[in-house]
Amino acid sequence: MHFPSLADIQEAHHRIQSFIHRTPLMSSEAINKIAGAEIFFKCENFQKVGAFKARGAANAVSKLGEEEKLNGVATHSSGNHAAALARAATVAGIPSYIVMPSNAPEIKKKAVKGYGGEIIECEPNLQARESTLNEVVAKTGATFIHPYDNIDVVEGQATCALEMWDEGIAFDTIMAPVGGGGLLGGTALTTHYLSPNTKVIAGEPAGADDAFRSFQAKKLIPMQGPNTIADGLLTSLGKINFEIIMQHVDDILTVNDEEIIDAMRLIYERMKIVIEPSCAVPLAALLKNKERFQNQKIGIILSGGNVDLAKLPFK
Amino acid sequence: MHFPSLADIQEAHHRIQSFIHRTPLMSSEAINKIAGAEIFFKCENFQKVGAFKARGAANAVSKLGEEEKLNGVATHSSGNHAAALARAATVAGIPSYIVMPSNAPEIKKKAVKGYGGEIIECEPNLQARESTLNEVVAKTGATFIHPYDNIDVVEGQATCALEMWDEGIAFDTIMAPVGGGGLLGGTALTTHYLSPNTKVIAGEPAGADDAFRSFQAKKLIPMQGPNTIADGLLTSLGKINFEIIMQHVDDILTVNDEEIIDAMRLIYERMKIVIEPSCAVPLAALLKNKERFQNQKIGIILSGGNVDLAKLPFK
């Protein structure tokens, strides 16, 4: 498979930069003290649509040919990719068709509509999702933009690490959460090109640990019945991303939900920022394996901030 | 009364700047659209100890004479000033004595201890608080640093607006919450010196509206039985601050708790940052009086981010 080159990723960044925020790196002395390391959090919770997904969607839409653009884009997602694709399409002046399960939360539907996406409801199961998507694509001629198993999406997500490296910090390790693997794959590629000695390490919920098991087994093992508070990481690892990860990721560490919630609380309390549970997974993994990261400079990507405030897990 | 001059405030900023963060201004397109104005939020929730109180405490401690320093500082507070004074004292290498009601939340006591303050408990009423403080001062010779009715504290809080003006934005209006009035008084002074035509407008909870009533009546009316979710604004307006406010504040707008919670939710959802309910009061006041602020450039001070995560008011 042909992975995006550094020049491709740089071009992607140039292509999408007027559609995204350049998000800040933030640090907390208190968390550094607890971790025994110097951590720089890349705040993609402040990104457009509240998540790094804005990057991949903007890149995929921007790369469509003029013919393709006429028919718009389609996807199935009830999460951040749905909102990101709807927004990217609207900004480009083209239609977007978002297949969502009929039981998706009202707030998610509202977000997609707010960004100008057209929602097509389906029964809440994978088969209905895929068949409905196929129908939509057949009827409209829209281009299907997969949430993570799409090389242009991965190329877009890779721009996040590009901005981190542009800050001039000599990271010993860069950490990201892994669900479908788009962010992790993109981060690993960029870091491989710019600093091959830097370790790229993923955090994954123990209740959705298909990437961990696939990485260990060296073959793609799909996730069945995931169960974790990190609702952004329920999906199975994508094929493209599995290949990148096997080549350029150094390790995948798992953490349980209690560890995720503890790390999430630390970020809310000490950094005063709102993140999704998924974002707390890498910090939880770091704190669980402290000795391994002592005195390192570590970049951690906080992937998004779209959380149901009425359901925060703090007691 | 002699108010701090612009030079005094600038000197205070120079004096404290190695002890505080220069906090960022943040904006949200979504909130601007809702408000019909261009809002710049000064994020004092990211300040040391999680609130602007770090400024006033640092300034008051730094201005003590060498003799005074030996005996340390004392205050009565169960809120952000307690933590801020404890930290400022510890940084200066001097003791701090914090009188707190015996029923103060464990988390607040822990914060003060964590910053190196010595807690002296008292019965949970005003009389016990004042008599205990007097005993502590008599015994230790410590200097009492009032949370807001202290000119050095006000001078320190005034440095927040100094940083805002330093960003080169021509604010039409600057808004702050008002409780004891230290932040509002300092903000009004700085803004009066640097941009006398800019309006300074406070937001206040309807359930603790002594500043509003004092401002209307042109005489200081203490608060009795305050009741609001904005727990940082329960205190009565200080004498010094009342004088500054009568001279340099243009208006005080009140909002009820429902309006405060709505504005708070907007900031969590759209800006992805953690703030105390008190911080949301000025935005609530703006949104309640939208027509008055149309197309203006508005600076809003988000005063702090120390909130009990288990008790967030979102449903």
From TrEMBL, chains A, B:
<dbReference type="InterPro" id="IPR000634">
    <property type="entry name" value="Ser/Thr_deHydtase_PyrdxlP-BS"/>
</dbReference>
<dbReference type="Pfam" id="PF00291">
    <property type="entry name" value="PALP"/>
</dbReference>
<dbReference type="GO" id="GO:0000287">
    <property type="term" value="F:magnesium ion binding"/>
</dbReference>
<dbReference type="InterPro" id="IPR001926">
    <property type="entry name" value="TrpB-like_PALP"/>
</dbReference>
<keyword id="KW-0663">Pyridoxal phosphate</keyword>
<comment type="similarity">
    <text>Belongs to the serine/threonine dehydratase family.</text>
</comment>
<dbReference type="GO" id="GO:0070179">
    <property type="term" value="P:D-serine biosynthetic process"/>
</dbReference>
<protein>
    <submittedName>
        <fullName>Threonine dehydratase</fullName>
    </submittedName>
</protein>
<keyword id="KW-0456">Lyase</keyword>
<feature type="domain" description="Tryptophan synthase beta chain-like PALP">
    <location>
        <begin position="17"/>
        <end position="304"/>
    </location>
</feature>
<dbReference type="GO" id="GO:0005524">
    <property type="term" value="F:ATP binding"/>
</dbReference>
<dbReference type="GO" id="GO:0003941">
    <property type="term" value="F:L-serine ammonia-lyase activity"/>
</dbReference>
<dbReference type="GO" id="GO:0030378">
    <property type="term" value="F:serine racemase activity"/>
</dbReference>
<dbReference type="GO" id="GO:0030170">
    <property type="term" value="F:pyridoxal phosphate binding"/>
</dbReference>
<keyword id="KW-0460">Magnesium</keyword>
<dbReference type="GO" id="GO:0018114">
    <property type="term" value="F:threonine racemase activity"/>
</dbReference>
<dbReference type="InterPro" id="IPR036052">
    <property type="entry name" value="TrpB-like_PALP_sf"/>
</dbReference>
